[in-house]
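## Example pair
The file below holds two records. Each record gives the amino-acid sequence first, followed by its structure token line.
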Amino acid sequence: MLSSNYNNNIQIVQGDQVVAVLNEMNHSVRIVPMDGRPHLPADVRQFRGDSIGHWEGETLVVDTTNYHPRAFQSISSDKLHIIERFTRQDASTLRYEITVDDPDTYTRPWSLMIPLQHSSKPVYEYACHEGNYSMMGILAGAVADEAKKAASK
């Protein structure tokens, strides 16, 4: 699915008892158990939190707690609680809703909705690669530095 943000595509894969959510940015994957288990104990903290999922009709609901402090937007507390909802609106649109609740960071919970558009293009690993055109500028700067050092000898 494509979002409107740079390098922020996602791919969702559903298995028997789990859903995997792959984010293109930083190439991270969340494995979301769908078997009704409870959250991990509150003292078990993970950078991406502890996600558990369930279905509410046609909507996938992912409930995430147990984040490390500062894991979300570099400002969140250990009380951060995020609920995401993924609902197919039509053959090419997935409605993505998120509600962020963190009483130590925000005065009240807040929500947003982003319509994600289907893409037939693959999601690539987020890394430097042959198509990274900025690499030419980086290397040109390094070559110029080396030439300057050689000229000053």
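Second record, same layout:
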Amino acid sequence: MTTSPISSTDPAAGLGTGGSALRPGGDMASALGKQDFLNLLMAQMQHQDPMEPMKDHEFVAQLATFSGLEQQMLANDRLLELQLAQISAGNAQLAGFIGQSVVARGDSITIDTGTPPPVGVQLDAAADAVDVSIRNAAGDVVSTFTAGPLGAGNHELPWSGKDADGNALPPGDYTVTVEAKDESGAAVSASPLLSGIVTGLSFENGYAELVVGDHRIAPADIISVGTATDDSPPGSIPGTTPSQGG
């Protein structure tokens, strides 16, 4: 009595519970493991044609392939462990920012009751004029002013916190847009700055971010770090040059 070769239309045949990874709808990349490949080898041996059995060198070659696969899987597990360890160490270091005053690249500004905070600006070169636009949550421009001339570096630009009609803007979060030009009218690279005291860490987006007020700051966007003091002016940006604003 001869045994029929394994059917190519039923790859899960003869695999028992290990064959579930190959059934339609399964995730082969994440479900196949060492035991599954051993089950495949056993199924191949059980269903081989007795008139043309598997050659010795073919059997050895498959065993070598499975051994290499196991080593690869173990190496991947070790790399994942190292990656997790590095992430944990990095997160532990970020905890040292809590309570520190930071300046970072960011286009957000929050208006509370009282004097509005200055607008932080970073210039890559000297500028003859710096135009600042403030937008509300809907993206509408609600306030504009021009400052300058300013040298290269970080600056804080005081502003009235009022709209074009002279009305005080309501408390809330706003977005800052900065455009700068030199004496010849050529554009100067300019970036808005966000500053404040770090009050915690957030992993809400799947990676670590520093919490500053209602904002989230990526560690890579931090420009400077200083010690927060009780006598610092509200909204002041460490390492900046106070400038005249609108």
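Notes on the second record: The two ends are 97 Å apart (CA to CA). The CA atoms of residues 111 and 171 lie 5 Å apart.
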